[in-house]
Amino acid sequence: LPQAFPLPSLPRKQPTVLVVCGPAQNGAIGLVCARHLRIFDYEPTIFYPKRSPDPLYRDFTTQCEKMDIPFLSYLPTEVQLINDAYNAVVDAVLGAEAEVGEGREPCAAILATLKHIRIPIVSLDVPSGWDAESGSSGGISPDVLVSLAAPKECARRFVGRQHFVAGRFLPYDVQKKFELNAPEYPGTECVVAL
Question: What GO cellular-component annotations does this UniProt entry give (predicted)?
Answer without folding.
Answer: mitochondrion
